[in-house]
Amino acid sequence: MKRDLISLEDWTRFEITALFELAAKLKGNRTHLGGHLSGKSIGLVFQKPSNRTRVSFEVGVFHLGGNCLYLGPEEINLGVRESAADVAKTLSRYLDAIVARTFTHQDIVDLARYADIPVINGLSDKHHPCQALTDIFSIREKFGKTEGIIFAYVGDGNNNVCHSLLLGCAKMGIPMRVATPKSYEPDKEILNMAKSFAQETVGQIFLTHSPKEAVAGADVIYADVWVSMGQEKEAKKRLKDFKGFQINGALVAGAKKDFIFMHCLPAHRGQEVTSEVIDGEHSIVFDQAENRLHVQKAVMALLIEESRALKK
Predict the structure, then answer these.
(1) Domain 8-128+292-311, what fold?
(2) Catalytic site includes residue 294
(3) pTM recorded for the entire structure
C-alpha cells in the first residue's frame, strides 16, 4: 500500500525520528545533489499562492535530482474544472508524487484516495504537517532533543499549524501549552487525538486563555498570524478578539532565559509579535524557514523510496 503525508496522525514516533535523521544528513551535505529523485517528476498542485512552500519544494526536488512542475489554479482548479478524483488518476499516469496546497482538507484526502502515487499535504485548512515536522526538527536541532521541551503556542488554536503541532508534539514527547481566546480553541477531534498520543509520551496537552500562563517557564514560544489567508473579512473582529495575545518583551520575560521564538511566517509585526521579539536574539524564524527545505527533501525521498520498493 502506498504511503502519503496527509496529517501526522498516521506517522509514528519512530518514522518521524527516521525522517529527522535523514533531513539532518541532507542538510549537512547541501552541496551534493543526491539522486533520491533521479528520473522522477513531482507535481505541485496549488490552489493558493505561496512563498516558502513552493520555493522549498521546487529547490528540494532539484537538489534531489528530480523534475518539478508547478500546477496552479489556472491549470488545475480542483472540484471546479475537474474533480479531485479525476485529477489524481490522471496525474498518477504522469508523475511520481503530488504536493498539494488546498483550501479544504477534503481535497487532499480525495487526491490521496484516488492517486496511485504518494500525496504530500503542503497545506490545507485543517493540517500543515510539513510545517509541524519542520518546527519539531528545528527544536531538536537547537536543543539536541524533543522530549520534555516545554512548548508554548500563543494565538489561534483552531488553525492548521496548531493542529499539526498538537499531533506532532504529542508523538515526540513535547509538552504543549496552547493559549488562545475563547471560541478559538483547537478542533475537538484533533485535540482528543493528540491527548491520546500524549498518553504514550511525556507530551502533555494544556489549554488556557492566558498567554502569561502558557509562556511561564517555556523553552519555546510560537506565534502564527491572527488573520490567515481567506479570513480577511474577519480581520476587524479577530484583531479585537486577540488583543492581549501579542508576543512582546513583557510576555517573553516569563519564559526560560534561553528560550527560542518561532513563527511559521509570514509574520505581521506589530500584531501577533513585536519586531523586538521576532528580530531579537532568541528568534530562530529564518533557521526554521530554511529547515522547510531539508525536512521536505527527506519527506519526498522517503515516500518515493517506499513507492519504488512497493513496485518491485
Answers:
(1) Rossmann fold (3.40.50)
(2) no
(3) 0.96
